[in-house]
């Protein structure tokens, strides 16, 4: 039996430690260590250092757990707990010293995400959720507040965050669907971190988020934070959120946005 409170506390303290390291040790001349799926899909030495710190710290406390990390991939465990880690979500923002990058840590028990933590160190913000216990924003000044998604927003008044993949062909398709979506909503925001975008939905800073292409480490923690803030998270036609399409919004906006994305061709992966 796993106590979600223990997992939450470990996720919070680990995200905080990684965040401090990423702020304090960010090299002034930080460059791209290597690229992954395309020349725009960058990894820095700090992505690797952050993931190493997170995995080592959690493994020292819980040696039987499994991990899925953006940089390190999958490692097995025996406890039934799997940690899903994005050591820097929004690496391009981090590279350019823009503030919207995050450390995202989710804990799954027997395949269900029960804890999600997203630290946004450059903003002094830490978003947390535990299944069935709500989601919260903790600030560097020590204040904490519960999060609620915006409700009662019609599609034409919705401020919608989105993100783009790294492959040129996918970007071309995304631009094409965006051309159809943009005239139908209040406006679009491209912040540069899916985890931060999801937290912004939970905090009511945007009304919705959608993206074709996010990976599970980008959205595992943020999706729980949205759900625990009263929001709905899913994919096309009742499917779970995935790299194919991930949508997050208050339940009354989710349906209209889903249908707009479907008819705009934004669900093509
Ligand atoms: C990326 C960011 C970005 C989103 C991409 C992600 P990374 O994560 O979340 O906002 O549009 O789909 O891959 O590569 O910086 O961890």
From TrEMBL:
CDD domains noted in UniProt: IMPase (cd01639)
Stored SUPFAM superfamilies: Carbohydrate phosphatase (SSF56655)
Top enzyme class: hydrolase
Pfam families cross-referenced by the UniProt entry: Inositol_P (PF00459)
Reaction catalyzed: a myo-inositol phosphate + H2O = myo-inositol + phosphate
EC number: 3.1.3.25
Record keyword Ligase present: no
InterPro entries named among the record's database cross-references: IMPase, Inositol_monoP_metal-BS, Inositol_monophosphatase-like, Inositol_monophosphatase_CS
UniProt cofactor(s): Mg(2+)
PROSITE patterns: IMP_1 (PS00629), IMP_2 (PS00630)
Keyword annotations from UniProtKB, A to Z: Hydrolase, Magnesium, Metal-binding
Similarity comment: Belongs to the inositol monophosphatase superfamily.
Name assigned to this protein: Inositol-1-monophosphatase
Source species: Actinoallomurus spadix
């Amino acid at each position: 039996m796993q106590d979600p409170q223990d997992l939450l506390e470990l996720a919070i303290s680990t995200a905080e430690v990684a965040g401090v390291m990423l702020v304090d040790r960010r090299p002034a001349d930080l460059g791209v260590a290597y690229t992954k799926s395309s020349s725009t899909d960058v990894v820095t030495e700090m992505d690797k250092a952050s993931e190493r710190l997170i995995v080592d710290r959690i493994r020292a406390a819980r040696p039987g757990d499994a991990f899925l990390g953006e940089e390190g991939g999958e490692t097995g465990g025996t406890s039934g707990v799997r940690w899903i880690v994005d050591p820097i979500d929004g690496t391009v923002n981090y590279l350019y010293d823009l503030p919207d990058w995050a450390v995202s840590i989710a804990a799954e028990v027997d395949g269900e995400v029960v804890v999600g933590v997203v630290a946004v160190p450059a903003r002094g913000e830490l978003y947390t959720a535990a299944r069935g216990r709500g989601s919260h924003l903790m600030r560097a000044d020590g204040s904490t507040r519960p999060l609620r998604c915006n409700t009662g927003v019609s599609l034409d008044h919705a401020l919608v965050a989105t993100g783009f993949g790294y492959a040129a062909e996918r970007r071309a398709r995304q631009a094409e669907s965006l051309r159809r979506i943009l005239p139908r909503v209040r406006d679009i925001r491209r912040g540069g971190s899916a985890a931060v975008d999801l937290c912004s939905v939970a905090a009511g800073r945007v009304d919705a988020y959608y993206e074709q292409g996010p990976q599970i480490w980008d959205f595992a923690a943020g999706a729980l934070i949205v759900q625990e803030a009263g929001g709905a998270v899913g994919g096309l036609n009742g499917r779970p959120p995935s790299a194919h399409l991930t949508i997050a919004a208050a339940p009354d906006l989710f349906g209209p946005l889903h249908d707009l994305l479907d008819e705009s061709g934004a669900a093509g992966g």
